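Narrative summary of target 7.
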Amino acid sequence: MLQPRIPLRHISSQSRALLPALTRSYAPAAHSLTRSYAQAADSQRHPTHSSPAAPVPTFAPQEQLQSTTAQTGLRRYKPRTPGQRHLIRPINDHLWRGRPLYKLTIAKKGQSRGGRNHTGQIVVRHRGGGAKRRIRLVDFSRWDEGPQVVERIEHDPGRTAHIALVRNLESGQRSYILAADGTRAGDVVQSYRKGLPKDLTDSMGGHIDRGLVASKTAYRGNCLQLGMIPVGTPIFNISLDKESPGTVCRSAGTYGTIMSKGEDEVQKEMVKFLEDQGRSRQAQALDISAFTPDQLAKYEKAAGYVTIRLSSGELRLFDKEAVATIGVASNALHQYAQLGKAGRSRWLGIRPTVRGVAMNACDHPHGGGRGKGKGNNHPSSPWGKPAKSGYKTRPKNKINKMVVQERPRNQGKRRKRHYQSTCLFITIRRSGRAPISGSQPMTLNTTIALPARLEDRNAVRDMVWMEFDSIKVENEYSRQQMASRRQSRKGELRAEAPIPWLRWRSARGEEGQTRKKENFEKVWARATQGAAYITCTFLSGLSQGAGTLDDTTHAAEHLSPGVLAHAGSAETQDLHGRELRPSQDLHSRERRPPQQRVKT
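Modeled conformation, tokenized:
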């Protein structure tokens, strides 16, 4: 039954005071919705800021002011209309709801060609129309130095990420920059592309300490050189060289991660080379005569790059003097948004896409026929080109030397392969102390490396057997098999898979104990085949109000000394005492040679 709609304009002012739910909680309270171009232009011509009385340190991180109405998440609507049934929008209550700064925009009229080139031919299909908009001039280079305050966060119809209107505290100049995720009005950002400010270097006594510089400059929204950013920091708007603007990781939610720096790797390699030569520690920092000119040139070239992992999974080298912005590109929930109806696609300038099977045979390879299928034809474009993969057009000789590892391509559905176990999981439970009613079990995980020699592994096995009361042995492959067996009723465990097995030490006589120990040794041998690490999980009761240590700490202290004594072995032997090859380790199981058939 449909509910009648109540017109809000007929509600008196007294009644509106009693209806707080009618007010939108996501609407900004500090901004006016009727800001015009003239008001923005007047504020640009006559800035209201005043010069500070005392100089503000440019390197000091300003207090991050968060919006009181800021929310993150997705908003779904009740299907009162068909267009709202599947509509999903990110909640961005911090966005400016007025018009952009007119001085920092240009007209888009005449630049949208509807997917046509200069001759009028369609080069990009499904383009045309769309709402009227203006192009925002975004500063991707960030050459303007000095502290800049974020006045507001705006939506840019020309990109998926949000933009921030910043004002330089020294010159008063305004500009648009890409907003980092979490940036709000009132935050202070700064660009260090031209170098570190003088007051920062003076505070360090003229000597540049990379750790101290990172602690004072590596904040969200700041622009730094890649060589100054700590390893593991997420970055976006990355430039390719020293002079170019940011071109990589500019879409919503994209970022790159600094994996390593060339100068650190070169330093480690040089120290290792000097140690192999038998040089002393004092000579390592000064003696360069041990290296040839070719080696020094190679090290100098390698030290000028930084390795970054992009969102696509590609590992790429960048110049250490190139710049990037700290953080993640804003509007990360854009990928989960759904337009809900076809009209919103037309607002964005996207025209309909007609399926090939709905066309005639003269218009598409999938068209025609008396049925609704494409027939025995491979998926292809209207011009006969394979739609799934296309043709390889990249020359084999022209390889991008900056790419260390290419992004994964053509993954699709992978066939199931034999899962190699690399870690052994053991769940240990000590009896004798029952948990108090109302208490929760305490868990402690300890991961150590298994020794390489078979005798040492057997010593660890015997110690685990003697010290604890109940043991559950399993590995990664058995966990995967058990999970698939629960999902599928017809699924069966493979015969060679180590089945999870729980041993309870009970009073059943000496023969029962011997039989259980033999089974435990068999399960241990199968589970440790190919495993290089062991994870022990201790379960026991947690006594409430007791001032003593619980059983988990006691179990960890009881197991660690004995296990570590055997885990410190550095013998390069496999489980059967054979010598390991340089390219073979415990993570990869040696394949058996194929059996030869004997002719009779």
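The chain is about 20% helix and 15% strand.
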